[in-house]
């Protein structure tokens, strides 16, 4: 094929696209102002799970809304000023919590997640990083029988979609994760799930594979993107002024996609930012976890990572670059100390990052309407680490005009652009 492709953004999505398009014979250059996998794709919880087909805006959201709007829970906070400014996004997001929209999204995400799981396995093997993968699922923890009963919609959905899971009582949970304190009468072990012990290192291993196969990685701030003189060419401009011509451009800037699309292209992307924080901890008394756990009452995920136990927080809806607010992390830490013998914090400053979310909780994976050669791959909300490789597979098929492994319709740009 030998056509030049410029990929903007070297998170999990951009790096996966780089590998896929290289495999298909394109001449690929990957741009990022940082080294690959240093932003959102670094700081996540490392979970790759079929249970993630449940978007945050599912029909159960309506019942939880009065409590969430009080803005005091560990799992969800919002900045009222940001919400007021992004009211159309919020209303659209809520409108998708209806049964029909939820079914469409769950079906689409399920297909993308399943495609991605296989692609991850292939890439991990090719990149020599299979040792980072754990195949023992993840566990939802419930602090009361009532909380467990409240998870009915999720369990029914997992059942309908054939997501392997097992309900555990306190004794069964203690056998699987003896490090947890006995405060959870019920748990749900999602068996159709895996996790990695260093998401950033996985992206870096994929990027190294791309480079070893002759791909070019440029560490540079991208300042502009415009059609160049020839009708089928694009010009990517670095902040230094260096310019690069390409027949195709893939915009995979994660939470920076909205601002870049607006400034460089005049596109209005309805994206909001679900911020999360993380902190690493040691463990006391030789306690350990063998897989990530999600404390549904505490509003955090605790994942065993190469760096220590990573506590990651729920959602703070706020501007991407708003000042940090550690209230949720502090609450999550208190709750996690009730559940597990955490030792000291291992860093002085918490990490933060933004989940980039479109109103229907599905990414855009498509050519930009009216702009041939400009491809969009962003909006992966809570599951971009998992679904980067499936995104790449779908994008590669669309670019090459091949049959797609999943239905592309739910991911079309025309939903919003
Ligand atoms: C707390 C938390 C927990 C999460 N847990 C999970 C999980 O367990 N499983 C899961 O699947 N997902 C999880 N996610 C979501 C996942 O991390 C994201 O969906 C995913 O990382 C998005 O990947 P991306 O490649 O689109 O964006 P990013 O990884 O953010 O990559 C975008 C890249 O663009 C670059 N960039 C931006 N602007 C410019 C510019 N002008 N010039 C050059 N480069 C630029 C950035 O440097 C960055 O490297 C979590 C997210 C958070 C915040």
Automatic annotation (TrEMBL):
Give the domain of life: Bacteria
- InterPro entries named in the record: FAD-dep_OxRdtase (IPR006076), FAD/NAD-bd_sf (IPR036188)
GO MF, one term, reads: oxidoreductase activity
* Keywords assigned by UniProt, alphabetized: Oxidoreductase
Mind telling me which Pfam families this protein's record contains? DAO
Under the heading SUPFAM superfamilies, the entry gives: FAD-linked reductases, C-terminal domain (SSF54373), FAD/NAD(P)-binding domain (SSF51905)
Domain (FAD dependent oxidoreductase) spans: 4-396
Q: Does the keyword Nucleus apply?
A: no
Task: State which Enzyme Commission number(s) the record gives.
Answer: 1.4.99.-
Designated name of the protein: D-amino-acid dehydrogenase
């Amino acid at each position: 094929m030998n056509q030049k492709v410029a990929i903007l953004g070297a998170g999990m999505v951009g790096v996966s696209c780089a590998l896929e398009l290289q495999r298909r014979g394109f001449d690929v250059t990957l741009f990022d102002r940082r080294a690959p996998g240093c932003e959102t794709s670094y700081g996540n919880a490392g979970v790759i799970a079929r249970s993630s087909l449940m978007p945050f805006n599912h029909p159960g959201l309506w019942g939880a809304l009065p409590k969430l709007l009080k803005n005091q829970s560990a799992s969800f906070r919002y900045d009222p000023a940001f919400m007021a400014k992004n009211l159309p996004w919020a209303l659209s997001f809520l409108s998708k919590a209806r049964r029909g929209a939820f079914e469409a999204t769950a079906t689409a995400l399920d297909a993308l997640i399943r495609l991605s799981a296989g692609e991850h396995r292939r890439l991990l093997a090719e990149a020599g990083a299979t040792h980072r993968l754990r195949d023992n699922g993840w566990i939802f923890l419930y602090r009361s029988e009532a909380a467990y009963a409240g998870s009915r919609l999720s369990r029914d959905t997992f059942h309908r979609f054939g997501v392997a899971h097992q309900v555990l009582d306190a004794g069964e949970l203690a056998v699987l994760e003896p490090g947890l304190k006995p405060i959870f009468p019920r748990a749900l072990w999602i068996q159709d799930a895996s996790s990695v012990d260093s998401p950033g290192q996985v992206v870096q291993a994929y990027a190294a594979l791309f480079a070893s196969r002759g791909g070019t990685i440029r560490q540079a701030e991208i300042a502009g993107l415009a059609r160049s003189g020839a009708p089928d060419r694009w010009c990517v401009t670095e902040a230094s002024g260096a310019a690069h011509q390409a027949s195709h451009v893939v915009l995979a800037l994660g939470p920076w996609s909205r601002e870049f699309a607006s400034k460089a292209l005049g596109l209005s992307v309805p994206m909001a930012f679900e911020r999360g924080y993380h902190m690493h901890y040691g463990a006391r008394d030789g306690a350990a976890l063998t897989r990530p756990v999600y404390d549904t009452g505490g509003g955090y995920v605790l994942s065993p990572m190469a760096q220590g136990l990573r506590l990651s927080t729920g959602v703070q809806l706020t501007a991407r670059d708003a000042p940090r607010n550690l209230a949720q992390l502090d609450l999550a830490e208190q709750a996690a100390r009730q559940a597990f013998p955490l030792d000291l914090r291992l860093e002085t400053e918490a990490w933060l990052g933004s989940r980039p979310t479109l109103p229907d909780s599905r990414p855009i994976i498509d050519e930009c309407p009216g702009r041939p050669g400009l491809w969009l791959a962003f909006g992966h909300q809570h599951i971009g680490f998992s679904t980067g490789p499936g995104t790449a597979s779908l994008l590669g098929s669309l670019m090459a005009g091949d049959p797609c492994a999943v239905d592309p319709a739910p991911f079309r740009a025309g939903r919003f652009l």
